[in-house]
Design brief:
2 strands; 7% strand
């Protein structure tokens, strides 16, 4: 199956090259420009697709890393060195210990 596919592809390429050699000069220039434009368009589409995919993967990875960092911060804040009680409050992803709410000492 694959051998016949390769043979058919080779035959098609040979026929296309033979037709290209038979064309007049101006027609050859037009065909070459068309093929060059088609190649540039396909290359641009492939580049945009791979960039889009990489950007999507990177944003997903960044979101996962942010979630892990927030989770680590919450877990480390919950485990106080003196005791295991929670002595503070969460406001979104910010932990505010109650020790910060004490009045300041006058200097």
């Amino acid at each position: 199956m694959s051998q016949s596919l390769f043979a058919a592809t080779g035959l098609a390429v040979c026929i296309a090259l033979a037709v290209h050699m038979v064309l007049p000069y101006r027609a050859r220039i037009r065909v070459d420009a068309w093929v060059s434009g088609l190649r540039a368009m396909v290359s641009g589409l492939l580049t945009r697709f791979t960039r889009w995919r990489n950007q999507r993967r990177n944003s997903r990875t960044a979101a996962q890393e942010a979630e892990r960092a927030i989770r680590r911060a919450r877990e480390s804040a919950l485990h106080d060195v003196r005791d295991s009680r929670v002595d503070g409050a969460w406001s979104g992803n910010v932990y505010r210990p109650k020790s910060f709410e004490k009045p300041r000492k006058p200097h």
